[in-house]
């Protein structure tokens, strides 16, 4: 990577960080969207009308990210999980999950950089995101480590059941909900177990 692209990258990351700080501050005074009125008009999910779920076909591409797989399973991004635009996936994450425009710009840019692709021009298949220690890492909540499993796009049902069973929170309607403490506890356990059972275990970030 040349010095110019390092400098332009720093400016880009710094710009997104500033934008994010401004959004965080403005959220202190802006009114929250009402429950049931979060999805913008004209987008999948508006009025609680989500495009139909259908499970992936053998030839479809899926990845280790449950959020992106769900969008493909509902046809919000191509059901094939292939030839996806970095720019468009960001837009769809924003309208589908009500994520900040900063996340929706930064993460696809990060993914493009990780795959050595052009954010504005290139396309990707979901499975490409499984590049080990790019974003995908050992000790995940819902998946076996890549050294222990053929493909990261397969969910590990016992992990999912354990996570759901570990939920200790209650919402206003007395539904059981997963709290951040629950997530943290289970993730701690996942990492400790992965470290013990996977000879190739690595953890880039603390
Ligand atoms: C373009 C944007 C995104 C990219 C490139 C991306 C990529 C990834 C990747 C590679 C993983 C696997 C990490 C691991 O090894 O655990 C992952 C996990 C995850 N992602 Fe995403 N993701 C994106 C957006 C989102 C969004 C919008 C959400 C939430 C609505 C989300 C929720 C999750 C969760 C909960 C996991 C953890 C799954 C687990 O530990 O098994 N992601 N993502
Ligand atoms: C994706 O793009 C490649 C190259 O342009 C093409 O060969 C392939 O048929 C496309 N796949 C899908 C599912 O659109
Ligand atoms: C990425 O693609 C855009 C649009 O085609 C082009 O203008 C830009 O120069 C490309 N960037 C790089 C680094 O190749």
UniProtKB/TrEMBL annotation:
Q: Which cofactor does it need?
A: heme b
Q: Which PROSITE patterns match?
A: HEME_HALOPEROXIDASE
Q: In the record, what terms sit under GO molecular function? A: metal ion binding; peroxidase activity
What keywords are assigned to this protein? Answer: Heme, Iron, Membrane, Metal-binding, Oxidoreductase, Peroxidase, Transmembrane, Transmembrane helix
Q: Does Membrane appear among the keywords?
A: yes
Question: Could you tell me which InterPro entries the record lists for this protein?
Answer: Chloroperoxidase, Chloroperoxidase-like_sf
Q: Keyword Membrane on this protein?
A: yes
Q: Please, which domain of life does this record's source organism belong to?
A: Eukaryota
> What sequence ranges are listed for the domain Heme haloperoxidase family profile?
49-206
Alphabetical list of PANTHER family matching this protein: HEME HALOPEROXIDASE FAMILY PROFILE DOMAIN-CONTAINING PROTEIN, STERIGMATOCYSTIN BIOSYNTHESIS PEROXIDASE STCC-RELATED
Q: Which family does it belong to?
A: Belongs to the chloroperoxidase family.
Name of protein: Chloroperoxidase
Give the species: Suillus discolor
State the taxonomy lineage. Answer: Eukaryota, Fungi, Dikarya, Basidiomycota, Agaricomycotina
């Amino acid at each position: 990577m040349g010095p110019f692209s390092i400098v332009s990258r720093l400016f880009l990351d710094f710009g997104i960080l500033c934008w994010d700080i401004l959004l965080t501050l403005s959220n202190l005074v802006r009114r929250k969207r009402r429950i049931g009125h979060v999805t913008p008009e004209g987008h999948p999910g508006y009025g609680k009308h989500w495009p139909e779920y259908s499970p992936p076909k053998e030839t479809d591409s899926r990845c280790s990210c449950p959020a992106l797989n769900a969008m493909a399973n509902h046809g919000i991004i191509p059901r094939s999980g292939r030839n996806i635009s970095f720019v468009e996936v960001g837009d769809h994450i924003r309208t589908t999950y009500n994520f900040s425009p900063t996340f929706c710009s930064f993460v696809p840019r990060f993914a493009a950089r990780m795959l050595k692709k052009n954010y504005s021009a290139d396309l990707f298949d979901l499975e490409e995101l499984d590049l080990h220690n790019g974003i995908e890492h050992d000790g995940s909540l819902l998946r076996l480590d890549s050294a222990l499993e053929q493909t990261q796009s397969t969910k590990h049902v016992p992990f999912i059941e354990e996570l759901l069973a570990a939920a200790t929170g209650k919402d206003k309607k007395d539904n059981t909900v997963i709290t951040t403490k629950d997530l943290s506890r289970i993730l701690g356990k996942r990492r400790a177990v992965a470290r013990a059972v996977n000879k190739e275990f690595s953890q880039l970030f603390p």
